[in-house]
Amino acid sequence: MKPLNPDSIAAPFARYSHGVEVPVGHRLVRTSGQLGLAADGSIPEGAEAQAEICFANIRHILAEADMNSDDVVHVSAYVTERVHMAGYMAARDTFLAKRDTLPSSTLVIVSGFTRPEFVVEVEVWASAP
Q1: Domains of the chain, with CATH numbers?
Q2: Residues 6+ away with beta carbon under 8 Å from 74
Q3: Family assignment (predicted)?
Q4: Which of 39, 63, 64, 122 has its CA at a distance of 20 to 30 angstroms from the CA of residue 10?
Q5: Between β-strands 120-128 and 27-30, what pairing exists: parallel, antiparallel or unpaired?
Q6: What does the DSSP assignment read for 81-110?
Q7: Sign (positive or negative) of CA dihedral 120, 26, 59, 21
Q8: % pLDDT > 90, the chain
Q9: Pairing of the two strands 2-4 and 34-35
Q10: Is the dihedral of CA 23, 67, 65, 61 positive or negative?
Q11: Stretch (H or E) spanning 111
């Protein structure tokens, strides 16, 4: 993966790259949006706790394709209010903590999800040989 951060534009706001080039011949995996729903059906309060579940679910999905968080090339996230951005970003930064090359990223504020308890949803694209 090659990060694309041209000097001719402003630097990213946080720990992400403006763009990512995927090498020729790599496999791609795209996850569905993951909500903060634990395996036991519980939904914790707060964006950070929910995002931690989202990223744990993503780890399991990527493992099915013999991939891990190092293979993520893009993260899309959705939160229901600006107040949830910090909690989501903390969980995202933990998910990406061991990486030098960062994926591209999109964060959008939405009006809601299928159930009012959910405050964050995360999906990723990953790529590996």
Answers
A1: 15-128 (3.30.1330.40)
A2: 20, 103, 104, 105, 106, 124, 125
A3: Belongs to the RutC family.
A4: 122
A5: antiparallel
A6: SGGGHHHHHHHHHHHTTT-SSPPEEEEEE-
A7: negative
A8: 96
A9: unpaired
A10: negative
A11: none
Cβ–Cβ contacts within 10 Å for residue 4, how many? 11
Q: What is the spatial distance between Cα 120 and Cα 49, in angstroms, rounded to a whole number?
A: 10
- Residue 29: the pLDDT is 98
Give the tens place of pLDDT for each residue, 55-69: 999 999 999 999 999
Determine contact, residues 56/92, Cβ cutoff 8 Å: no
Annotate 3-72 with DSSP letters as a single string: EE--TTSPPPSSSSBSEEEPPTT-EEEEPPPEES--TTS---SSHHHHHHHHHHHHHHHHHHTT--GGGE
